[in-house]
Amino acid sequence: MPRKTRLRKVVEPPRFKGYRPFGVNAKNKDGIDLHYEEYEAIKLADYDLMNHKEAAEIMGVSRPTFARIYESARRKIAQALVETKNINTVYGNAIMDKDWFVCNKCHARFNIPKGMDSEKCPACNSINIESLNK
Ligand SMILES: [Zn+2]
To answer: Which InterPro entries does the UniProt entry name for this protein (predicted)?
Structure first.
């Protein structure tokens, strides 16, 4: 029986849908799925320079769990670099305290407090918006 994965808190979704290598034969279309929580782990540890204890607290997971997520993220990114694969960001097991959207017209990212409705991009007023919370 598969173990049920607890959700990990992510403050903000990644600001991109993916990364693509250039200067290589782009025939290889398959990419690596980087979960939101893996992106968050890299951000907290390697960008915000937090120690694992602080980062684990922010994500609402134990330290060993954080270490696992972080390790998985690094391996995926390393594999993408070495094997020149695309990186796709996917929702994974994240939980966010706000509803995040991306505008498909101007690519603005914005959030709306839970419980409030929105049908429009605040930057360009386009109604062509997409939820990032799955
Ligand atoms: Zn917009």
So the answer is: RNA_pol_sigma_r3/r4-like, UPF0251, WH-like_DNA-bd_sf
Does 1 reside within a domain? no
β-strands 8-9, 94-95 pairing: parallel
My answer on whether 81 and 120 are in the same domain is no
Tell how far the Cα of 130 is from the centroid of ligand 1, in angstroms: 11
User: Helix crossing, 63-82 with 52-59: angle to 10°?
Assistant: 100
- pLDDT at site 26: 63
Q: How far is the CA of 55 from the centre of ligand 1 (A)?
A: 32
Give the model confidence (pLDDT) of 55-81 as tens digits: 999 999 999 999 999 999 999 999 999
Q: How far is the CA of 127 from the centre of ligand 1 (A)?
A: 8
Question: Could you report how far apart the first and last alpha carbons of the chain are, in Å?
Answer: 24
Domain containing 55 equals 30-93
